[in-house]
Design a protein that fits this description.
By secondary structure, the protein is an alpha/beta fold. The chain is about 45% helix and about 15% strand. The protein folds into three domains: about 150 residues, Rossmann fold (3-Layer(aba) Sandwich); about 200 residues, Nitrogenase molybdenum iron protein domain (Rossmann fold); about 35 residues, no CATH class.
Length: about 425
């Protein structure tokens, strides 16, 4: 882990580079994605099957795209009881948290006028679940349960096919979460199918869920054709630690995030250079023997940085500049700093809140803004699955009260038809 102190010339350049980490988008990636999107838009199901064979090395027949109820039922026999219990516990806690986010239709009276907002779910949501290097049943729960809580009637899951079938943990999680359709298709072609629709996969209104740079780019390019949750990049964690933080805990937390993939980014900001050095040493020792040692090791070597500052207030300012997906405050009184944090996807407060508790069983959503987008994006929530329509109702008497300023404003903007639409209500 690279250690940078405030006295180093590289301190501000290093911080600036990290703060701008989300800006890079490969032109080659975008060109490839656009070609696949056009291919699916024009070719539909045939294009999906062709790209699946090309990229996933799996030859599928059209009638095999959709997962059957029998496959879902059989998946339960391929997991242990305690594993199913863990998934159900997580689902219960995720549901409990997200039920508190519900918003309802509301109205109020302003004289004889009725004003308000109509709140209702979107008709259909597509949930993208990655495959490949890891299996993510927790992401199935995090993406699908808020949709179910919001009242979305059609919840579609897509995930890359495997030669030996879809992972049973994903199927069980989808069943628990209330997913209504599952398709064995992944990558850009899956996102395109959800956005455009095919004969087999009907289009959805919004696409959510994590994915690699190709999936993220596809979502970004399709925004407007379909709604999206956010454009997510590699996973990231920033730990803010004081002098009393335990180096072993900090090192373990950083590795917890680094094992996601080689591009995961982990950072430390501390008031103690001694702590930074101890954490760096412990990372090397804790890496040994991890199932994903090679992945975590590459992540640490490529992207990890420890910033040493003088005060906790300076540490918080560095944290706000980075705007990390996950932010841990490893301090004795974390709530004292809560209002000073302006940008973070999720906050893990205190000495005994490991990132993993929020990833799995705490209840808050773990689909979070990355790459500095926590400055303007929020975690996935029930609000992502509803839309709002404004309500306006006027009586003739109430319209009469505001007719003159309404007409004046229309005249200022040069829209006389607007003015006449109001005046017409009072003509004989």
């Amino acid at each position: 882990m690279k250690i940078v102190t405030q006295a180093d010339r590289s301190f501000l350049p290093s911080l600036k580079k990290i703060a701008l980490r989300g800006r890079a988008t490969g032109a080659v990636v975008e060109k490839t994605v656009q070609a696949i999107l056009k291919g699916v838009e024009r070719g539909g199901d045939k294009a999906i099957l062709r790209y699946t064979k090309q990229f996933d090395k799996v030859a599928l027949k059209l009638d095999a795209l959709r997962v059957t109820p029998e496959e879902i039922k059989n998946a339960y026999f391929h997991i242990r009881k305690d594993e199913g219990d863990a998934l159900r516990l997580a689902a219960q806690r995720i549901t409990s948290f997200h039920e508190r986010q519900r918003t309802k239709t509301w109205m109020y009276q302003d004289g004889d006028a009725t004003l308000g907002q109509l709140v209702g779910p979107v008709d259909a949501v597509g949930v993208y679940i990655p495959g490949g290097k890891a299996v993510y049943p927790s992401s199935v729960l995090m993406c699908a349960i808020p949709a179910k809580v919001a009242g979305v009637p059609r919840i579609v899951m897509v995930t890359p096919p495997q030669k030996d079938g879809i992972n049973p943990y994903l199927l069980v999680a989808a069943d628990i979460a209330g997913v209504t359709e599952i398709y064995r298709v992944g990558g850009v072609q899956a996102v395109a199918a959800l956005a455009y629709g095919t004969n087999t996969i009907a289009r959805v209104d919004k696409i959510v869920g994590p994915g690699n740079i190709y999936v993220a780019t596809a979502k970004r390019l399709l925004y407007g054709t379909v709604g999206i949750d956010m454009v997510a990049g590699p996973s990231e964690l920033l730990v803010v630690a004081d002098d009393e933080a335990k180096p072993a805990h900090v090192a373990a937390d950083l590795l917890c995030e680094a094992e996601h993939d080689e591009d995961a980014q982990v950072f430390l900001v501390t008031t103690s250079e001694r702590l930074a050095k101890d954490v760096s040493k412990l990372i090397e020792s804790q890496l040994k023997g991890l199932q994903r040692e090679k992945i975590a090791s590459k992540s640490i070597a490529r992207h990890s940085v420890a910033f040493v500052v003088t005060t906790m207030d300076e540490a918080i300012e560095v944290a706000n500049e980075i705007a990390a997906e996950h932010l841990t405050l490893s301090v004795d009184n974390p709530f004292d700093y809560l209002e000073k944090i302006r940008h973070a996807g999720a906050l893990f407060l205190g000495r005994y809140t490991p990132p993993s508790v929020a990833d799995y069983v705490a209840g808050p959503n773990h689909v979070l803004p990355t790459g500095g987008t926590a400055r303007f994006f929020s975690p996935l929530s029930v609000n992502d699955y509803v839309k709002v329509s404004n309500i306006v109702h006027y009586t003739k008497q109430e319209l009469a009260k505001i007719k003159d300023p309404l007409i004046r404003l229309a005249q200022i903007e040069g829209f006389d038809a607007h003015a006449k639409s109001a005046q017409s209500r009072f003509s004989s």
